[in-house]
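User: Hello, can you help with two protein structures?

Assistant: Certainly.
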Amino acid sequence: MQEGFVEALLIGFVGALVGGILAYVAAMRAARFTMEKTAFLDRQRREEERAEIHRRLTAQLLAEIKDNIRVLERPKLEFGFAVLVHDIWDTAKGQVSFATPEIGESVRQAYTQVYWYNAVVAAATVDLAAVRWISSMPLVENRGKEARAALERAAHAIEQT
């Protein structure tokens, strides 16, 4: 009788051990699956967020470029010259990658022209005499034409993507 009891106890112990091992393996596989799925979903969410940020920055950059083109249609004001904006570019540069290096270079060249134009305008608006003197010369107008052409090329390049 005692022999049957020990045998039953041993069988129960082995069964519990095997069941415990199987439960452990199943729990580890489920945990691994859950972690991998969570990591995949998190990675996917981050990629979607990056794409959305990129899309928004590109759209804002294009809007800023078009605004600057409109300003350059009539850069001379009664009291001086209009200044071009570059706030979005200052935020976007280094964060936005363009479809091709040529597009990025076109945008960089356009904003280089914006900076040059703004530098000439800043010099021209020091005082009223400087405004009159520079207004009589084509310096600002030429810089404006160069900036506008560069901005139009950049806008066209961005719109093609």
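That covers the first. Now for the second protein you mentioned:
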Amino acid sequence: MNIVEQIHDAIVSLVQANLPSYQRLKRIFDPEQNDLRNTERGFGVRMLSASTRSGPMRHYALDQGFEIIFSRTFAERLDDDQINEVILDMYNQIDTIIVQSLYTKLSLPSVVDLVDSPAISEPQILQNRAVILRLNLNVKYRNAIP
């Protein structure tokens, strides 16, 4: 298994362990295409760009971006205050993921040097009664050059 795949799987495992009520989304590149009627709480992980950084001798080192997409559905007739409560709850749950990501290095300390630069997007309200929040993380990792 390559390093990016290990990191991806570690992020999925972290979310599943800390937010067991969340189910994996089938469509992470276009979240609106998911059947959110059957997924009250969903998440997906996708890779973003990577860039080189200086690393130890005989290793290459990268800063790899990852995006975790969180979705929640809500009843049709919620007012703005009620929708805001859903969003605040999502922020609280995302905070748990940030803390665990930074603290544990995604449980890959032999590969991951640092998880940093967490950033949460502005909430996106979809036409199909769902809220999407996106958490971006930067993962600094290294790999030996044979």
